[in-house]
Amino acid sequence: MADYLLVDRLEKRFTSHGRAAFKDITFAVGQGEFVALIGPSGCGKSTLLHIMAGLSEPTAGTVRLNGERIGEPRPEMMFVFQQYTKSIFPWKTVLENVLLGVKYQSNASRKALEKICLEHLDLVGLSRYPHYYPYQLSGGMQQRVAIARALARRPKILLMDEPFSALDAMMRVELQDLLLELWSKLQLTILFVTHDLDEALYLAQRVIMLSASPATIAEEVEVPLAYPRRQIETRSERTYLELRERLYRSMVTQVVAGRADVP
Amino acid sequence: MNSKPRAVLRDSRLSGVLLIALLLLLWQLSAMYVVQSPTWPTVVRILEAWFENIVDGTLATHLLATFWRQMLGYGLAVVLGIGLGLAMGYYRALYNLFEPLVEVLRPIPGPAYLPLLVLFVGIGHEMKVVLIFLASLFPIVLNTYSGVRSIDRVQFDTARTLGLTTLQTFRELVIPAASPQILTGMRISLAISLILAILGEMIVSNDGLGYFVLLSQRTFKVPEMYAGIFTLAIFGYALNRIFLVIEANLVRWHHESSGRI
Fold first, then answer.
1. How would residue B64 be classed by pLDDT, with cut points 50, 70 and 90?
2. Where in chain A is the domain with CATH 3.40.50.300?
3. How many domains are contained in chain B?
4. Same domain, B207 and B153
5. Residue A1 in this model has a pLDDT that exceeds 80
6. Do B164 and A104 touch (CB under 8 A)?
7. In terms of domains, do B29 and B47 share one?
8. Rounded CA separation B59/B51 (Å)
9. DSSP for residue A226
10. Is B90 found in the same domain as B55?
11. 8 Å CB contact of A86 and B152
């Protein structure tokens, strides 16, 4: 259980300047767990997530899912990108975008596939918009399309790369709660990259903080806050505030250390 | 100043149409009263000649001949140009292989191929088709591969996480994403293909609008010459308009996403 998704001594060097983005990253994500990964910008957390998804190669170390090494994108793992305006194809309607994830994977009839897609659009609150084009939707709705498309593939794991960072505060709050609801309803395992400490604490059961470049794991904290979480109440709980202060201190330390490193 | 005329000037192209009418009127008057020369017939005389040649089918025959060879050369350029451009845009190795060649051949003005083609292909129909093809090819190749190469990494990553094969990626991502630029290349080449068709017909031919215009000039049928030129103006304009309508429908998403409606 503890070694469901296992990252083992992972390292990534960039060939152009030979500098390591991160090195010696080891952690595990249990089945059904919600883990947030935070760190200062430029620490390579997005690269780390791409490697875990099989979209990029590490220079050392491995990522294993159920003991099997990941080198290619896997159907049970879906990725949600930060740049929803690109990840959602603008020439396809909402329904066509969601269909894209399933139509080549299944021999079911078009009707049956559309039904699955509509169900998942309903799940993210977009049942009224299947025939809209992305440009007719707000940013928050576009990212919902991306989530519906990922979920329509019935994945076990969601890898999310700062999915809400381009949204305004109101939409972010809405989507955070939607994500928590989907997580418990569908028994997903979620690894969520963000640079927003509050978002990490509000969502996750565990927060892993990376240090400045070359990044290593700086800190790992359990977040013993009860679910369902509530935007106002949870964020004013004592535990929340204490953890927030602790992580904030740690982050400031990382940023200062990172600055001192620059020649 | 009253705001209504100003709004008309800004919002409608009526002024542009009136300018054309005014110029034609000036032409008519100048040919009647100022420059009385066989090379400067009145507009009315040109319209008469135009009408005669439309009624007896002469212009239609030549127009069809031009259109046919233009479409052969252009169609070939579209098919091969998009194919080569897609492959070059997608496969880095093919890009490295062909890009220098394209860059060297591209600046050669289309007409410069003519003497060479006469040597190798002769002076017949095929020569004109190949000429049109060569001149139309490069804008399409260039726009296609640059369209493919500007597709965002995130979109390719999306296709990979969705498990699309290479063929599916072309169908679902590469071709639609590059289509606005492919169509731009096709539109540029459409204009070029007409130019080269007319040029080829003027050099050596026995039909086509280029042939008709040149023959009319050589046989001192000056009104017919102008009528041929007017036909070309309308034909070129119509081709471009039709293309724009098709383009707007194919890539409506692109215009609307980028706020150009």
1. very high
2. 1-76+157-263
3. 2
4. yes
5. no
6. yes
7. no
8. 10
9. P
10. yes
11. yes
Partners of A100 on chain B (C-beta within 8 Å) are 162, 164, 172
B33 by Cβ neighbours in 10 Å (0-12 / 13-18 / 19+) ranks as: exposed
Which pLDDT value is given to residue B261? 43
Q: How far apart are CA A67 and CA B261, in angstroms?
A: 52
pLDDT over 90 at A16, yes or no: no
The mean pLDDT value of chain A amounts to 92
Residue A101: predicted pLDDT: 93
ipTM, 2 dp: 0.92
8 Å CB contact of A78 and B254? no
Q: What is the pLDDT of residue A212?
A: 79
CA distances for A242 relative to A22, A188, A209, A245, B175, angstroms:
28, 28, 16, 5, 52
Residue B164, Ramachandran bin (φ over 0: left; ψ between -120 and 50: alpha; else beta): beta
Residues B185 and B106 occupy one common structural domain = yes
Cα–Cα dist A47/A22, whole Å:
9
Topology of domain A1-76+157-263, per CATH? Rossmann fold (3.40.50)
Query: A53 vs B161: CB contact, 8 Å cut-off?
Result: yes
Say what the pLDDT of residue A262 is: 55
| Domain extent for B11 | 1-36
User: Residue B209's domain is classified under what CATH number?
Assistant: 1.10.3720.10
Q: Which residues of B touch A90 (CB under 8 A)?
A: 253-254, 257
pLDDT at A2: 57
Among A50, A75, A90, select the one facing B257 at the smallest CB separation.
A90
Residue in B154, B161, B257 to test binding to A, most A beta-carbons within 10 Å: B161
Please indicate, yes or no, whether residues B27 and B153 belong to a single structural domain of this protein.
no
Residues B189, B144 share a domain: yes
